[in-house]
Amino acid sequence: MVHTRFRKPAPGLEQIVRFYVQREVKIRGEAVVHPVPARAAALIEFNFGDPLEVLDLQQRAQRRSPTAVVVGPQTYRRIEMQLRGTVESFVIMFQPDGLHRLITIPVCDLTDRDYEAHSVLGAFISQTRQRLGNSKSFEESARLVDELLLRRAHRSTGFDGISAAANRIIRSGGRVGIRALADGSGLGIRQFERRFLRAVGMRPKLFGRIARFEAALESKARFVTRSWTRVAHDFGYYDQMHMVHDFAEFTGGTPTEALAELETVFVEPIKTIRSGRPATDAIGNSLLIL
Fold first, then answer.
1. CA–CA distance from 87 to each of 68, 134, 172 (Å)?
2. Torsions phi, psi for 262 (to 5 deg)
3. Distances in Å between the alpha carbon of 252 and those of 13, 57, 78, 228?
4. Any idea of the CA torsion for 38, 43, 49, 52, to the nearest 10 degrees?
């Protein structure tokens, strides 16, 4: 059994944090594979309970994830998690430049990598994990992290043209021109691309492709009767094969395979969405791509 819940951050953090996720795993026997496809933003995950196993798909080597890990943006399916035993995790999913604004390191140094979080963020991680370990509920955990992040947010860099451009790409599902974004930021195209790479972790064109892939998969997950041809058209792909090519690059498989893996891991959220019942913890674009 994998139980997943989502929650918005507190007012004042929306420009830094996209949403929080709690994952509860209780699985005996064969592990459930949790795919990690290309993903447009960084995250920090705190794990409690049994060790979380991670399979490195390039090296075909299995390792244990640290109890607190910072994962940069992903440009391809580099790893997958093996869910088994009893695990509870709390995830901070950042806005595209949210982590950069909190710690000011170049996010491109984290792209397609993961690190033990204390080595990147120091005492903040130890303090946060200790408080989360004493928390009695997801709501309490979210409030605690809100409090800690709001303190750091007061010292963070401000919302600027790069922040606005990245958010616009996400909101549009990748359907916006890079030249228009650079013009809107008041920067020349080369300076815009350099600053975007530093703050977001990848060049804006690749970021837009990943944002479009996320949005297309999210759309199909929500509206299962909608054909893949319709999805390709809705999100501005040249044709269905163009979309299939992007899915192969970002997930290692076909669109149908990517959807099936999503349905295996996010059973409850997808059922709620498809039933038409109000989903009070639904957060917007691409909340299922974790």
1. 13, 15, 35
2. -60, -45
3. 34, 10, 9, 17
4. 30
User: Is the predicted pLDDT of residue 249 greater than 60, yes or no?
Assistant: yes
Please tell me the distance from the alpha carbon of residue 167 to that of residue 183, in angstroms, as a whole number.
15
Residues with Cβ < 8 Å from 230, sequence gap 6 or more? none
Residues 108 and 67: beta-carbon distance below 8 Å = no
- 8 A C-beta contact, residue 17 and residue 153: no
How far, in whole angstroms, is CA 238 from its chain's centroid? 26
Distance CA 245, CA 254 (A): 8
Length of the chain, in residues: 290
Q: Are strands 53-56 and 2-7 parallel, antiparallel or unpaired?
A: unpaired
Tokens of 286: 């691409």
Residue-by-residue DSSP string for 96-154: TTHHHHHH-S-GGGTTT-EEEHHHHHTHHHHHHHHHHHT-SSHHHHHHHHHHHHHHHHT
Cβ neighbours, 10 Å, residue 155: 9
CA–CA distances in Å: residue 116 to residues 50, 71, 119, 206, 280:
17, 9, 6, 26, 32
Number of helices and strands (H, E) in the chain? 12, 8
| CA-based end-to-end distance of the chain | 17
Find all residues with CB under 8 Å of 184, minimum gap 6, and list them: 161, 164, 165, 168
Q: What are residue 49's DSSP bridge partners?
A: 87
User: For 195-214, what is each residue's pLDDT tens digit?
Assistant: 999 999 999 999 999 999 99
For the full predicted model, state whether its pTM sits above 0.85. yes
Beta strands in the chain (DSSP E): 2-7, 17-36, 43-49, 53-56, 61-64, 68-71, 79-94, 114-116
Residue 154 has pLDDT above 60, yes or no: yes
Q: Report the distance separating Cα 49 and Cα 59, nearest Å.
A: 26
